[in-house]
Structures are given as structure tokens and as C-alpha cells.
Design brief:
Largest sheet: 3 strands, antiparallel
Distance between the termini: 27 Å
Shape: elongated
Oligomer: single chain
Length: 95
């Protein structure tokens, strides 16, 4: 099955939106866990990742495995490129 570029871009936009959401959820969860004293550390004193972070990095790893490239802005928005097609999640006013 051959996808149109517009279909690929729409799929990338959907993935970017999911990455944005997962990143935001992970960051909120980290803050909540730190505030509740539920954070675990390794022997070197580094904070261990929590489940939402692990899920986020799994999503990123899968995308990279398929040859995708990505960047995350300081406000947590993702820019994705795959096979020459670039996309970001649609903004609230674009939906």
C-alpha cells in the first residue's frame, strides 16, 4: 500500500501530538512524585525514570528505529521528520 505524502504528514502530526502529551504527562508525574517523596535513586544518586518517562522514551526509540528524526522544543512540542516529510502537532486553533 502506497501512502500519499499528505497521509504520512497527518500520521506524523498525530504521533507528534501523542509525544507532546506523553512528555507533558511524564513531566507532571515527575513533579508529583518528587513532591510526594516517591522518587527512587540509583547508587550514584541519579533519579530513576518513572513509567511515563519510560513509555515516552520507548515511543522515541521506536520512531528512531524506523529512521525518524525528532526535536523537542523547550515548551515540550515535538518536530518530526520521516522520509523527508516533516510535521508538528496541530495547534489547538488548527484542529
Amino acid at each position: 500500500m502506497k501512502m500519499k505524502i499528505s497521509d504520512v504528514r497527518a500520521s506524523l502530526q498525530h504521533l507528534a501530538e501523542r509525544l507532546d502529551n506523553q512528555w507533558a504527562y511524564a513531566q507532571t508525574s515527575i513533579k508529583d512524585d518528587v513532591a510526594a517523596g516517591q522518587v527512587e535513586y540509583n547508587d550514584d544518586g541519579e533519579r530513576l525514570p518513572i513509567e511515563p518517562e519510560i513509555s515516552y522514551y520507548g515511543m522515541i526509540a521506536a520512531f528512531e528505529t524506523l529512521g525518524g528524526e525528532w526535536k523537542r522544543s523547550s515548551d515540550g512540542k515535538h518536530w518530526l521528520i520521516w522520509m523527508g516529510v516533516a510535521a508538528i502537532a496541530p495547534q489547538d486553533n488548527e484542529v
